[in-house]
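S1.2 Input.
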Amino acid sequence: MKTMFFIVVLILSALSESMAGDPDILSDFIVPQDNTTVDGNFFTYTGMRVLLDAPEAKTFSVLKASMAEFPALNGQSVSYAVLDFPPGSVNPPHTHPRASELLFLVDGALEVGFVDTTNKLFTQTLKTGDMFVFPKGLIHFQYNGDKKNEALAVSAFGSANAGTVSIPNSVFNTTIDDGVLALSFKTDVYTIQKIKAGLAGKS
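S1.3 Output.
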């Protein structure tokens, strides 16, 4: 599986160029002002090494390689994320406002889907080796419905800073008035408060 992971990264490196969406830069690369040395180390990210000997995750987890973690990506219109789905786990509905997402399923099976601007739901059951694209800015999700086996995916983004907006957290873990939410969801304030209590501390 380790070999497969690195093969996937190489494949996605080539594919990500066709998804590029960040503004063009006027130099080969951008060096942060506080960086005085530019050599091979600047262009190397070792943060994914932790995956090689990591124990199985207990909850859904994401390991990112975006501009925040890997400054050399600034201006390069690409970033990655490794998504680890323990049995029965979900990556809740969310959006990436600055990039589309190309997901490659390295191991396991996933139920995935997105909703377009006409509220049409597009879903698919992915098996190991499948790819799925989530269009830029649209609400989407991934779910490992297998109760015994984990799933592992690698996602490429057409931006060094794709951004993630979690729908549950953005709606219920902010200071939007309970009354406004109750009217919006055609329910009562008590129900809204119960949902908020369940999401508290999970942003």
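S1.4 Remarks. Residues 2-16 form the longest helix (15 residues).
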